[in-house]
Specification:
The complex is a heterodimer. Chain A is of the alpha/beta class. Chain A contains 21 helices and 19 strands. In chain A, helix 10 links the parallel strand 13 and strand 14. The chains are: A alpha/beta, B alpha+beta.
């Protein structure tokens, strides 16, 4: 039995409880009584994957169906991978400890571009052919992917049988229903894929064939096997009524987000032009306060967690934020539960809200200002004024805070040196503000942390057409920022630009990149999002060997009339709208949030109703 | 405020043996919260349920006799506490009994461990063990806070049983345990391995008893 073999070596590795299952909340079924087995794979380690809310939702939802069994699977750490390879332990699922190669579905959630090589490594560890074309004609081992990255899945197209676009709660079950039915009829893999392609939200990449122009851009797309010309993403019918798990698998080892979590809203009204999540998760929908309270209580009771967080893209945009927090705090305070509120915006940060936050957390405040000058913030449509930032900081300082963390991006469209210097200027003005406040925290200096990420243009945003800054430009700006900051009260940190350089290639790439992803993995690339594993040199070699000019994807402006690798996928936001927003950005004109005025992104036409 | 001191004895077997001591702490906190038993919280700045384990158990060891002390702030029958906790415990962990705290934790002097040494030639392994035990001293290197120390464990090892089977030698030994000295059975196993005799694998290491002076079972 595989379990004995695993146990024989388990004590040789770090944090072995990650590899053996048995956690409270995990679902065990009798495999002889289930029709479809689904291995939900997260292409990173347990510690990270177990923190992912989407997996928790889809895991519980699938397991509600008596005859379907969803299990969890993660990338092993390097030490355990070595043990697995040496002892021929195939990648297995944590509930049954059965090899995932025997499963009906092997489903990956693609949360970030830098996890692509982990998918290949996991398929290899599982003993599943890495290329979809090499898999058996038998109806088994269907390798699928969902998550935000599949809005442009082309750099992964050769490795997957199916991509699931949009929200999975309904389409996953429809896909499994179809599979169960066709399995009974003895259908082949291709027959199943041809039928599956007609489920809304299902994209079968092998039925789509790209032809390229001389210059490298896409000439046209040919669709075969009767698959639809355009694949629409799925959205669930009623968000307030949608299934939400009443229990989580509670890990033994500490994970990154080790708490209960309740989704309070989906989508975002803001329309920040760099933010992919702000567009691909539209329309904006929220849960009622009563639903949220009920779900918080239920999860805390069943898991035993003493901390709960509210998950969303922007929690303070919930229309009932004040009464919601009042109701939640009534429960959490009496039960000694910590309530954590990530994703707050500076512009609607009221004093009463701060009072409530102060009750629940003692840690620092973080604001995403994104741009150093008002002009640049207008370009990116981060509708936050300096006055609002200052006002929020004032409230925070008067409320006893003495440190503030500010997030910025570097390399944004139209950015000049002035905008970079503006970052330091803004931080300096916050310091001046601190010392101008009479009732500031006594005896403490102020600390401003500036965290700078490199801008990565992403599909389905108004900036999808934009080039990324070259390495030289980014390095120049980083140096400039460091030179501009002249006080120890400001701490500057920024990300490795090479990570962002790879991210943009994979985010905006086309199908020709598959072989580079494969080559990079063969050269040993994995865990690319981990600093200690990231090896840009190997990636550069892989691109060169595959004849790929990375600047074609990273540093070239994509034309408005160009066929983009993701144009046949419909995320409900129209290309006309994205072009319009792009042009507006270059005029430094902002677009009001969706609640104030509909910006005509096209989502309401697809959904068949007004968003507000 | 009412405060009732309680002692639970629990098993940690099967997959639960991979829960580290640190993780066990977190795991019990959540188990208490799920169970809804009226556990007493500390009254400081950051109130948290008070509970403690008598002895840490090495990662990978099973046990049939782990001790967990905690306090209640409301009366509840011991059987109900046991049943409520067992209803929400992770797989492999089970409360055997809940009772009053008779002895102090400091009364613990020894712990008993059972394990199985599997080998191709069990006769040879058996005689290796006998000759190790016949030595005037068994020196091992023990990691302490002050660095590596050479210790003679010979006076501390009490062999309770040593039996040969077809493919293993099964032993039960007692070693010093408690707040002062703690010897891990792997020290003995390593000493045997360092003799360079018959090669073997140590399996199924399990703590089977915790004792006080005069061989009295700690409870």
């Amino acid at each position: 039995m595989l379990k004995d073999l695993i146990e024989k070596h388990l004590l040789e590795v770090q944090k072995p409880s990650r590899y053996i299952g048995g956690e409270v909340g995990s679902v065990i079924k009798d495999k002889s009584k289930v029709d479809v087995r689904f291995a939900f794979c997260f292409p990173d380690t347990y510690d990270i994957g177990m923190s992912h809310l989407g997996m928790k939702i889809l895991y519980s939802l699938t397991n509600e169906r008596e005859n379907y069994w969803c299990e969890r699977c993660f990338a092993p750490g390097e030490d355990f991978e070595a043990v697995m390879r040496e002892n021929n332990i195939p990648l297995y699922a944590l509930e049954s400890l059965d090899p995932i190669k025997d499963f009906d579905f092997i489903g990956f959630t693609m949360q970030y571009e830098l996890s692509y090589t982990n998918v290949l490594n996991m398929l290899d560890l599982a003993g599943i052919p890495i290329f979809a074309a090499d898999r058996t004609q038998e109806l088994t081992q269907i390798v699928v992917a969902g998550g935000p990255c599949v809005c442009n899945p082309e750099p992964l197209a050769d490795f997957f049988d199916i991509f699931i676009l949009g929200e999975g709660e309904e389409v996953n079950l429809e896909l499994m229903d179809l599979y169960a039915e066709m399995k009974k009829q003895g259908a082949s893999r291709d027959e199943f894929l041809r039928s599956a392609a007609h489920i809304e939200g299902v994209y079968v990449p092998k039925f789509y064939h790209f032809m390229y122009k001389e210059g490298g851009t896409i000439d046209r797309l040919e669709v075969s096997d009767g698959a639809p010309e355009v694949v629409h993403k799925r959205i669930i019918k009623g968000f307030d009524k949608v299934y939400y798990p009443d229990n989580f698998v509670v890990p033994f080892t500490e994970i990154v987000q080790d708490r209960a979590s309740v989704e309070v809203l989906r989508g975002c009204i803001r329309g920040c032009r760099f933010c992919q999540a702000g567009f691909i998760y539209r329309p904006f929908r929220e849960k009622h306060t009563d639903t949220i309270c009920k779900e918080v209580k239920c999860l805390c009771e069943n898991t035993g967690y003493d901390e709960v967080s509210l998950a969303s893209l922007s929690t303070s945009d919930h229309s009932e934020i004040d009464p919601m927090l009042t109701a939640l705090l009534d429960y959490t305070v009496s039960e000694r539960i910590n309530l954590s509120l990530p994703s707050l915006r500076v512009d609607n940060f009221s004093e009463s809200l701060l009072e409530k936050i102060k009750k629940v957390r003692k840690s620092g405040l973080t604001f995403a200002a994104e741009g150093g000058t008002q002009r640049l913030r207008d370009v990116i449509n981060k509708n936050v004024s300096e006055e609002e930032i200052m006002n929020t900081c004032r409230i925070a300082f008067e409320g006893g805070y003495s440190s503030v963390k500010l997030y910025f991006m570097m390399g944004l469209p139209t950015e000049t040196d002035e905008d970079i210097e503006g970052i330091a200027d803004l931080a300096n003005r916050i310091i001046d503000l601190y010392y101008s406040i009479d009732n500031r925290p006594k005896g403490r200096g102020v600390q401003i942390s500036i965290s700078c990420a490199t801008f990565v243009p992403k599909p389905f945003t108004p900036f999808q057409f934009e080039p990324q800054d070259t390495r030289e430009m980014i390095e120049h700006k980083q140096k400039l920022l460091l030179d501009t900051v002249k006080t120890k009260k400001i701490k500057v940190s920024y990300h490795n630009p090479e990570v962002s350089m790879l991210e943009v290639i994979l985010a905006k790439g086309d199908r020709r990149l598959c072989k580079a992803v494969y080559t990079a993995w063969q050269k040993g690339c994995k865990f690319d999002s981990w600093d200690e594993y990231f090896n840009f040199g190997k990636w550069t070699e892989a691109f060169a060997e595959c004849g790929i000019d990375t600047s074609f994807y990273a540093n070239r402006r994509f034309e408005y009339d160009e066929i983009l690798p993701w144009d046949h996928l419909d995320y409900y936001v129209s290309k006309e709208f994205l072009i319009r927003e792009n042009k507006t950005a270059h005029k430094s004109i902002t677009t009001p949030n969706c609640r104030l005025r509909c910006s005509g992104c096209g989502v309401n036409k697809k959904v068949g109703r007004e968003c507000f | 405020m009412l405060l009732i001191r309680v002692r639970a004895t629990f098993e940690k077997c099967g997959r639960a043996k991979y829960i580290s001591h640190l993780d066990l702490n977190r795991c019990m906190l959540r188990t208490f919260r799920r169970s809804g038993i009226p556990i007493w919280y500390t009254e400081g700045f950051n109130p948290h349920p008070y509970y403690s384990f008598a002895l840490a158990l090495s990662l990978g060891f099973e046990s049939s006799c782990e001790i967990l002390d905690f306090n209640l702030n409301e009366e509840m029958p011991f059987e109900e506490i046991r049943d409520r906790l067992n209803a929400v415990m992770p797989e492999g962990m089970k409360i055997i009994k809940v009772a009053e705290q008779k002895q102090k934790i400091t009364a613990i002097t020894e712990a008993e461990y059972g394990f199985s040494l599997s080998a191709a030639d069990t006769d040879r392994l058996y005689s290796d063990i006998q000759s190790l035990l016949a030595k005037p001293e068994i020196l091992i290197e023990k990691k302490t806070k002050k660095g590596i120390k050479t210790v003679d464990i010979k006076p501390s090892v009490k062999v309770m049983s040593c039996e040969k089977t077809d493919n293993s030698v099964d032993m039960t030994i007692r070693l010093p345990a408690g707040t002062q000295t703690n010897f891990n059975p792997t020290l003995f196993i390593d000493a045997l391995r360092n003799m360079g005799g018959e090669t073997f694998e140590a399996e199924k290491i399990r703590r089977t008893g915790i004792f006080c002076e005069n061989n009295e079972i700690f409870s």
